[in-house]
Give the backbone structure.
Amino acid sequence: MLKTGILNPHVLSLLARVRHTNTLVLADRGFPSWPGLETVDLSLVDGVPTVLQVLAAIRAQHVVTQAFMAEEFGRENDAATRRAFAAALRGVALTHEPHVDFKKRVPAAVGLIRTGDTVQYANMIVVSG
Amino acid sequence: MLKTGILNPHVLSLLARVRHTNTLVLADRGFPSWPGLETVDLSLVDGVPTVLQVLAAIRAQHVVTQAFMAEEFGRENDAATRRAFAAALRGVALTHEPHVDFKKRVPAAVGLIRTGDTVQYANMIVVSG
Amino acid sequence: MLKTGILNPHVLSLLARVRHTNTLVLADRGFPSWPGLETVDLSLVDGVPTVLQVLAAIRAQHVVTQAFMAEEFGRENDAATRRAFAAALRGVALTHEPHVDFKKRVPAAVGLIRTGDTVQYANMIVVSG
Amino acid sequence: MLKTGILNPHVLSLLARVRHTNTLVLADRGFPSWPGLETVDLSLVDGVPTVLQVLAAIRAQHVVTQAFMAEEFGRENDAATRRAFAAALRGVALTHEPHVDFKKRVPAAVGLIRTGDTVQYANMIVVSG
Amino acid sequence: MLKTGILNPHVLSLLARVRHTNTLVLADRGFPSWPGLETVDLSLVDGVPTVLQVLAAIRAQHVVTQAFMAEEFGRENDAATRRAFAAALRGVALTHEPHVDFKKRVPAAVGLIRTGDTVQYANMIVVSG
Amino acid sequence: MLKTGILNPHVLSLLARVRHTNTLVLADRGFPSWPGLETVDLSLVDGVPTVLQVLAAIRAQHVVTQAFMAEEFGRENDAATRRAFAAALRGVALTHEPHVDFKKRVPAAVGLIRTGDTVQYANMIVVSG
Amino acid sequence: MLKTGILNPHVLSLLARVRHTNTLVLADRGFPSWPGLETVDLSLVDGVPTVLQVLAAIRAQHVVTQAFMAEEFGRENDAATRRAFAAALRGVALTHEPHVDFKKRVPAAVGLIRTGDTVQYANMIVVSG
Amino acid sequence: MLKTGILNPHVLSLLARVRHTNTLVLADRGFPSWPGLETVDLSLVDGVPTVLQVLAAIRAQHVVTQAFMAEEFGRENDAATRRAFAAALRGVALTHEPHVDFKKRVPAAVGLIRTGDTVQYANMIVVSG
Amino acid sequence: MLKTGILNPHVLSLLARVRHTNTLVLADRGFPSWPGLETVDLSLVDGVPTVLQVLAAIRAQHVVTQAFMAEEFGRENDAATRRAFAAALRGVALTHEPHVDFKKRVPAAVGLIRTGDTVQYANMIVVSG
Amino acid sequence: MLKTGILNPHVLSLLARVRHTNTLVLADRGFPSWPGLETVDLSLVDGVPTVLQVLAAIRAQHVVTQAFMAEEFGRENDAATRRAFAAALRGVALTHEPHVDFKKRVPAAVGLIRTGDTVQYANMIVVSG
């Protein structure tokens, strides 16, 4: 039995296949589904789990050097939410870009982890170091 | 897009196949895996999500009339934990039995939802009304 | 057991994957089949079930903000039928377009639910809010 | 395009494999699911479609000589419901038996068609002539 | 058990998916195989069954409004054969075209039924009404 | 392209796997289907093809030393039919047995070829030499 | 049990799908593998079996009207080998072309049969009559 | 590219899974097929390849310590054939037993390699050292 | 990209499914293969990798409380080897039993990791805490 | 049981499909994963196994005539590492090219073997002779 860290067999397998320059999508509750892209859906109900819970779990065991988010995230959320995301991404080179451009990166990802996050534009694409 | 309630496609499909007299296992972090039993693993890390979060999500949309738990649950947990489970199961006929007997019910279930719950013996088998 | 609403495991799973900007096709009895597109065929015989029964079931649990229909629908049906569809789509931004253009939208959908509907051009593409 | 009768590809395929002495289960909304048994789920919402709609569609194209129902059906339903089922089964040798015995016949069936029927104990096992 | 008509589960399923504007290929003994196209091979030996047997079975239950054949059919066969095909296609709008053009229509079909027919250029593409 | 004989890829593959002491079922229109048994369904409509057409095709290329039929075959058919089957099985050691016993041999077969034969009890189990 | 000829179920099935204008690749020991092309690998060790053994087996039961080989075959082999191939292809229209052009025909084939042949450039693409 | 030895990917994979006490069946042309047992069919036509060719290829790279054959092999074959098999099995502990007992060992094997061998009772079960 | 620890996606997925009371087999170079048991084969050549390398990798991240080995291990190996295994299993309750009994535990395991270990009887069944 | 050499069934199968002009990728710990490319992941932890261990195992049994590596390999590693790779590739025509060009060759490979190698830019594409 695992002592600590990520417990999910599919998440562990997917993350082990995200390597140098590979990307991974962390999706909120409403992010479009992408048939054909390997998807682990962890969502239960609204807010369970959140994108930041998944991000924290990943950063504890994996190198993340870069991330992309929609620039709409900044406009649609309050300061507390923005601060929480900034703290969670400390040390990661973060690029904001229009949501339509952000979505163009999705098909090139190795996979997608879906959450129940209700924060507007909480979606994030992380790049393996 | 779903307005409310359970968001997960696999969980929704599995629950729709739990009908009169069918059973479903809600498993904690360490419950043995059962190859051959349809399994939705929602676990991320310790405590995400909990068995009670899954139970609440199910009871909001499904009829649950009966439940089974290990009698070890009562001995191994404090009063607060026991009260939380009792509250979550209000209105459900609950049977406590030795863990070895509880496990014999698993192969007859329609499926199993795994959580990251760290409460001792938090596992539960729920019976559809 | 589900208390209410949509009962079908495959329909529930498909709908949970129709999210922001994703589309879903509701097809009548004679609409062409699309090999490669995820399809739930609910048809039994003529008129069982109808597109409007499926639409009502979806709108009770899902956000639908936009819809597309063939403009031939208006020409080929009587006033009662047109009124029934208009009522069922109240609050949804509806676009009529030539049937040949309508069909070009199909391959981009997440899936298709087929009915036994015999109303001419009853097909509809709904967009998740 | 089919001129008339059953429209559903999976239902047509399943029925063509129900031959001399083979049996088929018609299940209501709440009948237990049977993993491993070929299942066509036509249910949409409560009452769509009904067991009698499926039975009528089958009898129009297939020979049905025998049927089984739970004896609880008679006790739990009113005269109108009982008359409707009797009419739908005219010419078929019908056996009532306890529901627990009825369920023992299910694993030997070639398949199961699930409906959204809400009539109590509406389930039926039909035998091909 | 089916009372009458087409008996084959796969043929029934395939035909139920040939709808408005969809096409179906009826192939003779020597017509090229098309990997990737859904194929039901009914052939046993030379002449069992024939394309016209399959066509008659389809027309009894399905609407066929249009058909394509190779123009080589007319040149390579005697008057009796040509009359038999003409009779079998009565009421269907028939187009003859060079075999090389005919073959370009194949990949767009919903499926192909192969026979053991030994008539030269007996192949036919039928269009659902 | 095959010069002569059996044309069907699946039939050819199945027959090549029927070897010393292996058995093969030739089934008529109404013989029960056997989920789990490899099945080639050649049936189109009533009488297309017949069991004797399949048997002749097999005997031309394969050694058949033994066969089983239901003893009901003799009682239910006229002299002409009985003579046709006797001729087709010349040189094969034929055993008649009650249909209920005949059916017990089916699960041990390597496969089943289904026809559209309407002759009563036309079913046959052939044994490879 | 087969009386004579090709014994292999997969080879028989593949050959039955090589029809008018379809092509088949016969490959030697070292010919590149083609992921995605249906392949029957009959090779055991060097020289078991040979391309000419496979060709002879095919020609006994199938019409072969045309063949392609690499023109390097003539340069790299002695007169005895060249005579053996010429004899085996008597009556077939044979085209020699550069190996790089020969390989461009491979993806359009219905399948590939691999041998253990050690003759240089023994590969052959045969066309069904 | 392999320098020498067995060339066949499936044979190599199967042999690598035959380890201490595991068994492998080498089957002649007419040995019954065993649905469910992993099978590599190398047969082309009568005598291509032989059981002894496969055995030699295996012994060059694998440890074989024990073998089983039908005692009918000795009675049905001439001295030359018996000598050839004896030579090929030198150093292996060989057990002859009735063919009916021999066949009971088959289901426990890891796999079966089929040849085109026409020697009577040439079948052999080899045990990995 | 993973910072440290086990790198293999399949091994990570398998280990995450080994929970309370579940067992896992670590197999040496020659241990019998078990069709039907989930297997990760990490072996390259003799001694790459070893059972103790896999055990160390597992113990760094997983709770192992109990282990089984063949009692033949002690007899067949020298003191250095025995000391290395003892050190690697420090803190784990180790049971030695006859190899024939040890092998009876294998089918109940969740999976098997195969190594290239050449130490006699290096096989081990570990039990999750 | 294999006497010597590569022990892994999947590696043996993959290598047997790398033939004239086919290529194979040997990947280090961090090389990007390529969904869709056949992959054997042998990695356990850092440095187990290494690219040179895999290369040595391959060269013992296979012809390798050409190899490609990233030119960054030379700049990022010390003399000892460079000498070890040079020795392991003796007799192979080695091309260094920018890593971005190197990666363009990957999709054309027959497969990829992943190691746990931690040497910078240890990745290698080998070409079969």
Notes: Chain F has a mean pLDDT of 97. Chains F and C do not touch (no CB pair under 8 Å). The beta strands of chain F are 23-27, 39-41, 64-70, 93-97, 111-114, 124-128.
